[in-house]
Amino acid sequence: MKLAVTGSAMVTSVGEDKHRSFEALCAGQSGRKPLQSFDADRFNVSYAYEIADRPNRQDRVLRASEMLAKAVAAAVEEARLSVRDAAIGIIVGTGLRELRSLELFWTKGEPLTIDQLHFERILNETLGSALPVITVSNACSASSFALALAEDFISDGTFSHVIVGGCDAITESMFGLLDRVNPLHPDRVQPFERDRKGVLMGDGAAAVVVESVERAAARQADLLAVVRSVGTSCDAIHETAPDTGGLVRAIRDAYARGGVAANEVDLAMVHGTGTSLNDEAEAQAMHEAMGEAANAVRVSALKSMTGHTSGASGLVGVVTAIEALNNGVVPPTIGLVNVMDGARTMNFVREGWNSLFSGTIAQVNAFGFGGVNAVVILEKEA
Predict the structure, then answer these.
(1) Could you tell me the CATH number of the domain that includes residue 171?
(2) Per the residue annotation, which of 26, 167, 271, 287 is the catalytic one?
């Protein structure tokens, strides 16, 4: 089922809203900063891609919820959607939810109540509504997977409109986990770079409002883009390592559901974490699923500028891809000097290269721990 996107928003380390983020991304600006959330002395790395919203570098509870609410409110406003409609639902994808708030509760005694951990409270307070909120925690593909669920709910008539959100804030425990998992100590994220060292976390949130194309036309809403399909797979081969076969199935499922051929895809927003396992598996999967088209499609890896925004990353890619389709420019992959062997023939948009773009179909990859994969196909509204 095709879905109309009538509102979109994002908050990232490079911009406080969609327009500032996209402008910064297209300019190749990095959100990399010295670590603010907690003391870096315990770790091997001292950088992250954080949103600069902490006065005096003082961390606080509910930052993830605040970022999510800001993005959702902006998307709803752009969509000109009345939240009094009882047939509206909200689906949020996240990897860590309010884990940082729990860390602050246990380690510093910051006040926190159980109901504050649920996004339903802050979202309905922000929107002045009483909408149902469903939260899914599907690792790094969570927000794209939430978009797949939105398609199901609208298709079966459960909701007339769905507000899809994604968010994650950097947490000390996850930062420490990645610090131990990375075999080397990265000071930045360099997707598909031969000399990449690993991944660093980033703050981020994004949201879109989706509805049927017919309903959007009936209420004379502006169409930002059309979701042709969301392809999914769950391979469960390994706790963290991606499986090429699972990635291929998700890509092909997206093509089949959307009625799109690989050679019709003009832009690919890749997952690109800057880790050897992910980048190699993703490059291999794209070549296997797309054939020769994998070498023609324009490729952009946003995590080179935003870091890994975990559960928000898929939807950050979706919002950025919509902006790219509508503005005719693609953000570059920064820090890409020597492309790794398995991706050497791919058509990356790089710093200083031509980023102008006139395509109509975009693909957004999102791959998560445990092999939970989601691939979104978007079409520019004619």
Answers:
(1) 3.40.47.10
(2) 271
